[in-house]
Amino acid sequence: MTQADEEQSKSERTRGEILSAAARLFRHDGYYATTMRDIAREAGIEAGSIYYHFASKEHILNEVLDIGVRDLHGEVSAIVRAAHSGATDFRATFAVLVETHLTFLLTSSDFTSANIRNYPMLTEEARTPHRELRAAYAQLWNDFLKDAKRAGLLRADISVSAIRQFVLGAMNWTVEWYDVKRYPVSVLARRMSKLILDGMCTDRRAETRGLRTVMAMPAPPPPPPGKAATTRAEILRAAARVLRDAGYRATTLRRIAEEAHMQAGSVYYHFKSKDAIVDEVLNAGLRDLVTGVRSAIAALDRPHDHHARIATAIWAHMQFLFMASEFTSANIRSYGMLPRELRKRHRDIRYEYATLWDGILREAQQAGAIRSDIKIVPLRQVMLGALNWTVEWFDPTRDGQPDSLSLEAFSEMLISLLLEGICERGERAAARAIAAS
């Protein structure tokens, strides 16, 4: 090897180390909060040296995002081609696809995780170079699901694109809660595949007659008395919007002040620090959600219609996510990238919400309304993940436009998919009969 070759090889290694370091930081801290100096330090090189390999942080981002989807696309494409050749059946292929996506996302690729976590918060300009590859990946899933639908294996009442978004959303949200120390990805993939394919119900069709399809929206709180209290409330609402759109580390007191149309120094009159503001926003977001879901299911009379009770809780969750509380979406979108100490302060309220759901699901399971072979905690995690990821792709303001749904119709569709699964009823029944034989 010539000296020129050695220098090129060393340069390529350094370049790869920079990209790997950036992917780790983008995954855990977010793109906007990460600096070139941070990346250089993580890669173990001098801060100025990084510019020998990359002109800017934006150039690094582009490569990280591209690698994150391109490698995954290659793996999934090979699996789908094998399915087209008839080498494996639909259910087996679906399970492999789920495990492949989850493995890239959770354990084998910081690049894929960095893409999934950062893309929704990027500007339109930053997203544009990556739309084609992301669309190609989505098309792989679309083609696979279309073939299954033509074969009568998928339910006919929900579009393939909706099913694909539901499936990918349920998987993508695992970056916010999955703990590799608790159980391997293969176990998670198996449980998730079963739930997505067949739903949680024991019957061929869920009964939701008790669903309150027009829930009363919670009354907005009265305006706080006094100018200081009004300003304080506006700062919190502004912080919720910034936190929701930019993430924790990119949320600064200056940005909050700009969003609230006030001087940065004035914020200190009401709050001593950014974390004091974030604390209140996060707490309000989940407190609203807990109160709203608990109130919604309390209105259902005993003896409980368990399917209707689950459906009503899902409905309430979606209402708060999109309409009733701007604090809720801020909490949902930013929580995964919060510092550990800050997250710790909100574990009790998150645990309270998880416990509320576990109680709803466990009572339904004990009554025989949902399947006995599903474990409650993973069921709740996957279900809430599928719901929470919708903040990244569903837009209720598009209601009335072609191929769009109202929040009500969209929530009904999600309820149906979670309760009944994506498979056609006859196909699901046949699969269960085979499993039981």
Explain how this protein is built:
The chain is mainly α. The protein has 21 helices and no strands. The radius of gyration is 23 Å and the shape is globular. Residues 212-217 have low confidence and may be disordered.
Low-confidence spans: 212-217
Distance between the termini: 63 Å
User: What's the structural domain tally?
Assistant: 3
By helix and strand content, what is the structural category? Answer: mainly alpha
Total beta strands: 0
What is the C-alpha radius of gyration, as a whole number of Å?
Answer: 23 Å
If classified by CATH, what would the architecture of the largest domain be?
Orthogonal Bundle
Give helix % range. 55-70%
Main beta sheet, described?
Answer: none
Return the string of H and E elements.
HHHHHHHHHHHHHHHHHHHHH
Output the CATH homologous superfamily of the largest domain: Tetracycline Repressor, domain 2
Tell the overall outline. Answer: globular
User: Counting H and I runs of at least 4 residues, what is the number of helices?
Assistant: 21
Query: How much of the residues is beta strand, in percent?
Result: under 5%
The CATH C-level name of the largest domain is Mainly Alpha
Nearest-integer average pLDDT: 86
Give me the CATH fold name of the largest domain. Answer: Tetracycline Repressor, domain 2
